[in-house]
Write a structure and sequence with these properties.
heterodimer; A: alpha+beta; 14 helices; 24 strands; B: 5-stranded mixed β-sheet; 4-stranded parallel β-sheet; 19 helices
């Protein structure tokens, strides 16, 4: 056995292989560290251990000690004699102790798994053909991997409630439920809204909400994600698409500065759902329900699918050329956005520098935080605007200063990017005094007044980076193609910059990042292509003096890292 | 009620005396609470040592040594230590604790206060089965009386030691009697047993504090150990099986009832004290310690080696009536609920009855017990309803094997052991039954009635 190197590491033996693991590591995690999967339903690395599904049973042994002398018992070859427990133990509830041995693939273990699998199926409706979970169902996978392959149950199955509305977004089929209690523990421990519980006993146990309560908190859909079967389904996604047709693309929830990591699921250019993506440094495996609905922006009624010049549909090329002409005059102000990507903000800063600009603004959005994964700052990338130098102070919610500049005649032209100037406090009268170029995704009061409207992309239709509350730069990727003849925002802005400056300017992420990392020391060594999925925390010391409303630390405290699958 | 000469009454010494009432004056007239008074002259650790020395084993079911249980309590955590009396007597066939609580409640309170003092407990509970409302009332009254006289509550017997005692009505489920299920229920939650590790009651029990859970009879025995001394107590019964035990005998005997005995055989209890089978019948089998324990077939021989190397060869009537004796015969003395099955009983129908009970009482937490117990009920019910198949016997056994030892608490064993042992000992009868009951012309009314199973 390898010697204990550090105090916090213990050596355990998994199927004959010694491995050093941190003290307290459970055997599901320890096995995962050596690439062995211990199947489990109720265990979730981010929730408390309940130990009820009994799928993770393993054989457990400890080095024997002579009762009389207390001496270690040895085999003939001098190795420690392992005393195996007569019954199996749950991997999730068994924490590493020095010299612990487990077997994850012995005959006994295989039989235990077969037994549990058979039991889970006896009262299961086996309605996989019409079940939304089919294809990503743990019960399906484990029945195939660990089941006996034949049924012995000839009795009548239990009848339980179906189509129970647990809340506005979650539907329950109790017959599919395997009573693992993950959803209950999630509601209690993470969402802090303990509305779920079991009623009745034994095989008739039924998941339900407490009387007079609903599962309606902003995290309710996480219960659907962690449900290992099709018991909990999303009202929005139900019966819409078989999951195996869906293409998954990494993305970021852009509703607040937390920057929950997400995965966007689409088929043939249409998004069907958004799910959280695990990042142990940000959101664990969770995300708010509100962020899952953002894909509806893509096909919203007021979506801009075509550019406009003087109110007439125009090609993107013509719109950009016209915009460049208008912006190259006197008295320009740039209103950028905390919704823009780092790259867009960088190009905007370049435009600010090369045009005769009278001011650069970003509009702040604030709301109440929920203590979990929704922060006060409802812009995903105010940090980006600061780090690219587009702005140097925290943004205001109202563009009062810009209003004064318009009133005084100092500002005559405005480039508004992803912001509605009316919503940000300017008046119709003020907008009438200036020439507006608007780059946006949806029509609003500003696009209605704009001389040139450039139809841009939502974050689902492009790639880019955002810098979250922790100054962690994270990237997201294009999930679906652009709507109509909308133009990539970055291409539009880079072209405008090239036109104004009269010099070439990079317009793709790769080439632009060469420029960004060269010209801005904060981003030294960063590039879009090399940025990993977990993102990278940047040096934020230059911004220590700024009083961010939501602070630098997440309110949510991610759990320690775990390697086992959820 | 005449006490049989073979009985050895200690705990129930006065309970059935004519004129003995559950009030405190009656208890004190028999020397009640004198032991508690003297307990305060001793150090708590000395009392704990005395209990350990007495070799007292738990009377609730598992037979774990009470003194050892106490010694496992985490006394360094800085958290309060709780004492809980497990009065959730719900194992079918067991009705001894109810007698104590109904007839001699102060004995329990005295035993609890001594145990509480010995373990530095400031808050004790009696978790009483919901279906015992009368006992709960009696205990509430007794606690009031004891508090008035200073034997419970603040400054007990003027010693400066205080311990409150509360009666908590149970949540009406069998599983509430499982130690950690009881603790969950006492905390106001569903009585789902906790995983061990880490939730050993002695360390992380009630409200995550060290907790002692003892059976009613066990706590009464503590009083008698302190009264007579560990040595005298140890002389009752056999070593490692010290003290008396109250057995509850039901079923096919002439005089069913509860009997406090020590150092006798199973035969002496069943034939001498209980008068043997009803006229014209013979004893077919005996379930020794509550319905979940493995069945003993009359006529089988129980052979093995004693720890001293000598061999034993017993018939069912020769089995020493204590923990080790019944364990040597392959079963357990459990909660002391002995059921005698005579030759009129169909074993498969009895099993159907039991499975009906256990599937109803599974808490539903662990997959094997939850799904397995109901499956077993469905199979046995189908069998008594005339749709038995020859392969059902093997299926029953296989399902039971898939439950045993794979659950959080011992309930999995409680479901599996009857199935495993009934089939092991009466396989012929099961196979004949399956054969016969699959015949549509068979009259099944008596079997269905015995199985208490009409669904």
């Amino acid at each position: 056995m390898a010697e204990e190197k550090k105090d916090n590491l213990v050596t355990v033996n998994i199927d004959g292989q010694d491995v050093q693991v941190p003290k307290g590591t459970n055997m599901i995690e320890a096995a995962a560290m050596v690439g062995k999967e211990v199947p489990h339903y109720c265990y979730h690395p981010k929730l408390s251990v309940s130990g009820n599904c009994r799928m993770c049973l393993v054989e457990l042994g400890m080095p024997g000690r002579d009762r009389a002398t207390g001496e270690a018992m040895l085999n003939e070859d001098g190795s420690p004699k392992i005393m195996w427990m007569p019954g199996p133990a749950i991997g999730c509830g068994t924490n590493a102790a020095p010299g612990m041995h487990i077997k994850t693939d012995s005959e006994k273990v295989t039989q235990a798994r077969e037994g549990v699998t058979e039991f889970l199926l006896v009262n299961h409706p086996l309605d996989c053909p019409i079940c939304d979970q089919a294809g990503e169902c743990t019960l399906q996978e484990f029945s195939s991997a660990h089941g006996r392959g034949a049924g012995r149950f000839i009795e009548e199955k239990n009848v339980k409630p179906k189509r129970t509305k647990l809340g506005p977004r979650v539907m329950l089929d109790d017959e599919r439920c395997i009573l693992c209690s993950r959803c209950i523990r999630f509601s209690d421990e993470v969402a802090k809204d303990g509305v779920l519980g079991f009623t009745d006993r034994g095989s008739y146990s039924t998941l339900t909400c407490f009387p007079g309560k609903q599962l309606e908190n902003n995290y309710s859909l996480n219960t659907v994600d962690i449900c290992p079967v099709g018991a909990l389904t999303s009202t929005d996604f139900r019966f819409k698409m078989r999951v195996w047709f869906l293409k998954e693309v990494n993305s970021i929830d852009f509703e607040t500065s937390v920057g929950c990591n997400t995965s966007v699921h689409s088929r043939e250019g249409k998004i069907y759902r958004i799910k959280p993506r695990r990042n142990d440094g940000v959101n664990d495996t969770w995300m708010p329900d509100s962020g899952r609905e953002l894909y509806k922006l893509v096909e919203a009624e007021n979506r801009l699918t075509s550019c406009l010049v003087d109110g007439v549909a125009a090609t993107a090329q013509d719109a950009v050329v016209r915009a460049s002409e208008l912006l190259n005059g006197e008295g320009l102000a740039v209103v950028g956005s905390g919704q823009c990507t780092v790259e867009e903000q960088f190009v905007l800063k370049a435009i600010v520098d090369s045009a005769k600009t009278k001011g650069a603004y970003v509009v702040a959005r604030y709301g109440e935080d929920d203590g979990i994964l929704v922060s006060k700052d409802r812009n995903p990338n105010v940090r980006g605007a600061l780090m690219t130098g587009l702005i140097n102070t925290l943004p205001e919610e109202q563009l009062t200063a810009l209003g004064a500049q318009i009133d005084s005649g100092e500002v005559k032209t405005i480039l508004a990017v992803k912001e509605d100037l009316i919503a940000a406090g300017l008046t119709e009268a003020q907008l009438s005094k200036v020439t507006i170029v608007s780059l946006d995704t949806h029509s609003n009061a500003t696009t209605a007044k704009a001389k040139v409207v450039i139809a841009g992309l939502t974050n689902f239709e492009k790639s880019g980076t955002l810098i979250n509350q922790q100054f962690r730069i994270q990237k997201f990727n294009k999930a679906i193609p652009a709507a109509g003849s909308a133009i990539n925002d970055l291409l539009a802005l880079s072209t405008i910059q090239a036109n104004i400056s009269g010099a070439e300017y990079p317009s793709t992420l790769g080439s632009l990042w060469n420029l960004i990392s060269e010209s801005n020391s904060t981003f030294e060594g960063v590039s879009f292509n090399s940025l990993c999925d977990q993102g990278k925390e940047l040096d934020s010391s230059a911004f220590d003096g700024l009083a961010f409303k939501e602070g630098k630390s997440l309110l949510f405290d991610p759990k320690q890292e775990a390697v086992a699958a959820e | 009620m005449a006490i049989h000469p073979k009985e050895h009454r200690v705990v129930l010494k006065y309970a059935d005396e004519p004129g003995y009432t559950p009030d405190i004056d009656c208890y004190m007239s028999k020397g009640g609470y004198e032991t508690l008074k003297t307990a305060f002259t001793k150090k708590p650790e000395d009392i704990r040592d005395e209990v350990k020395k007495s070799q007292l084993r738990g009377r609730g079911g598992a037979g774990f040594p009470a003194g050892v249980k106490w010694s496992l309590v985490d006394r360094k955590s800085g958290k309060p230590i709780y004492l809980v009396c497990n009065a959730d007597e719900s194992e079918p066939g067991t009705f001894k604790d109810r007698q104590i609580m109904h007839k001699d409640p102060h004995q329990l309170i005295e035993g609890m206060m001594i145990s509480a003092f010995a373990n530095d407990v400031a808050q004790a509970f009696i978790y009483i089965r919901e279906e015992m409302p009368k006992a709960a009332k009696i205990l509430d009254q007794a606690i009031l009386e004891a508090k008035e006289k200073g034997f419970c509550g603040d400054n007990i017997c003027g010693s400066g030691y205080s311990c409150d005692l509360v009666v908590h009505r149970g949540a009406a489920a069998y599983i509430c009697g499982e130690e950690t299920g009881l603790i969950e229920s006492l905390e106001g939650k569903r009585a789902n047993p906790r995983i061990k590790p880490p939730y050993f009651p002695a360390v992380l029990g009630l409200y995550q504090c060290p907790t002692i859970v003892n059976n009613v009879e066990t706590l009464c025995d503590v009083k008698h150990i302190m009264e007579m001394g560990a040595d005298a107590f140890g002389k009752i019964g056999r070593p490692n099986n010290t003290g008396t035990r109250i057995w509850c005998v039901s079923g096919g005997v002439q005089r069913p009832g509860y009997y406090e005995v020590a150092g006798i055989t199973l035969g002496e209890l069943v034939y001498d004290i209980c008068g043997g089978p009803l006229p014209g019948r013979t004893i077919k089998a005996i379930i020794p310690g509550g319905s979940s324990m493995k069945i003993l077939r009359n006529g089988e021989r129980f052979k093995g080696k004693n720890p001293d190397g000598s061999e034993y060869d017993w018939g069912v009537e020769d089995i020493p009536l204590d923990y080790d004796g019944i364990a040597a015969a392959g079963s357990m003395s459990g909660s002391g609920g002995m059921m005698v099955l005579d030759d009129t009983i169909s074993i498969p129908a009895a099993l159907a009855n039991l499975m009906s009970f256990y599937s109803h009482e599974s808490c539903g937490q662990c997959t094997p017990c939850r799904e397995g117990s109901l499956w077993l009920k469905k199979i046995t019910t189908r069998m008594v309803h005339g749709e038995a198949r020859p392969d059902d016997v093997d299926l029953l056994k296989s399902v039971a094997d898939q439950i045993a030892g794979r659950t959080i608490c011992a309930f999995g064993f409680a479901v599996a052991w009857p199935v495993q042992s009934y089939i092991a000992k009466f396989e012929e009868e099961f196979r004949e039954f399956a054969e016969q009951q699959s015949n549509p012309d068979t009259d099944r009314s008596s079997v269905k009635e015995l199985a208490c199973n009409h669904g």
